[in-house]
Structures are given as C-alpha cells and as structure tokens.
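One example copied in:
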Amino acid sequence: MSADVEDRDDEVEGDEPETAARNRDDVADDSADEDSDDDSDEAGDATAEAAGERAPGGIASAVVEPGDVEAAVGSGEAGSGEAGSGEAGSGEAGSGEAGSGEGEAEERVFTRARTPELPDDADISILDPEVKQELRGLPKGLAEIVGRHLAAAGMLIDSEPELALEHARYARSKAARVAVVREAAGLTAYHAGEWAEALSELRAARRMSHGAGHLAVMADCERALGRPERAIELAREAQGVQLAPDEAVELRIVAAGARRDMGQLDAAVVALQGDDLDEKRREPWSARLFYAYADNLEAAGRTEEAVKWFLNAAQADDDNETDAAERAFDLSPQD
C-alpha cells in the first residue's frame, strides 16, 4: 500500500479511535449476522428478499457498466463470468453444495483480505455519485480509503478481476455495514469466478438496501453452483419486483439457461419469448436476447429457426460482441 494511504489509516486510527474501533466491532458483528442470515437463506427463505423495489445498478457504474452481465455473448455457460443462456459447464465454484457455500465465502473474505497496493489514479472522485453518498456515512478518512479501493476494483475488474477482488474485499473488511460496499464485493467476486462469495455478498447487499438487487447475477451464481432450480425460483420471485428492462431481460436469459441445464429444452425456448423478441426492435439488449434465443433453438433441434435468429442477432450486434454471424454460417447447409 502506498505511503499516502498508510498516512490516512493512521489518521483514521489516531483522530477517531472510538469510531474506528466501533467499525471493527461492526465488521465482526456483521460477519456473525451474515452467517446466521445465510443459513436461513439456505433453508429456502428467499421469498422475502424480493419485496424491495429499489432500482438495480447502484454500484454498477462504480464497478461494472450497466448491462455488463452479457448474457448471450460467447459460449453462454453458467459460471463463465457472464449470465449465460447455455449449458452450465465451467461453474464449479468449490463444492457448490447447498448449505456450505455462503459460510465458506464469508470465511474467505476475512482470511484473504490483505491490503492491496492502490493504483495512483484510483481516486474516489471517479465513483458514481450514489456510491459516494453512501460512503459519507463513514468517518472522512475511512470513506476515502474505502472509496479508493472501490475505485481500484472498478478500474481492474475487466483486465485483472482477481486483483480487483482483493481491493473489493479490503473495502468490505473496512465497511461491511455499507450496502454499496457489499454490492461491489459481490459483483467483483462474480467477475472473478467466486460464485459462492458473490452470492453471499449480493444477498447481504439486498437485505441491507431492501432493494431488488442484482437478481440476474445471483441467479447465474446459483447455476454455476449447480443449483438451476434456485435460479428459476429467483426468476419467479422477480415477477413481483419492478426491474429495469435490461435487468429483466438478463434474468429471463439466465432462467432459460437454468431450464436448459435441467434438460427442459422446449421450456428454455419459451422462457425467452415476449414482446421484445422482435427482429425489428433495436434495444441495447436485443443482440443478447436474439443470440440467446437462437442458441436455445439450436439446442432444441430447431436448426432452421436458429439460423434465422443468429442472423437477427448479428444484425443487431453493432458492437460485434457476439459470434452470431459465425454461428449462423456454421449451421447453414454448405455446398
């Protein structure tokens, strides 16, 4: 850690010893609370979490861009770092056993949260205003430290997700009772492939904020942990929650992938159908939705329709995020 950050640590500990001590006690108390809460979650008490209606994405602009759960891009495998539509192949996150993942994730947060060195340009000023607003509840010096580590996590999440996670874990160890910090830790863990940890942190953030949370990411973590039925249950709960349109589409894509994991190929195709599955529409998520639909049509043996929708996806994919054109070509009859 750089000298200037060490000075800030001294400032927090020296100027406000009672507050700093209270924050450390809060972290310990919160760990115990989360272990207890997660045990009840594992028993199936997830329904109450869907009651909130806070618009998702609060930390998203600080850690990932909105809509960065690119559901249908690439292979679409659960646990690939993207909420996918295809087969759950690479999502072995530890044991993935019900009842053990979340507690182990909490353990890892505290045993592995070393102090990573901050990049020079990791400044709190680059954070989303909503994130900075929540951090104002911390002592000034501590808010600066936590904010800089969140900024570093956002800067590194695409290029070095494991290092980004170290920064997010460190921020979490300093401010575990701040919902936006837990949200950032969860999203960063997801991108780093730590599915159980991501799920635990996002559950905590959802309880603390009383909002909808990142349901698509949470559902994809369930898929990666080998629990597609829980992903489907999350999608059902979301029917009574007001989600942003892009989040709702991503959740449908993940739910379709969960159906496919369970061998319900026709149901996976039906799960993606809706008014927005229109080849003439052009929304930011259209390419991903069309691609996911084509991918599931192919899995169901409906090759001719799959080619059509891969071509639709290619036409809607202005940023060339998918391999839709190549997939269409591969499925087309060759002379």
Observations:
- The radius of gyration is 21 Å.
- DSSP finds 16 helices and no strands in the chain.
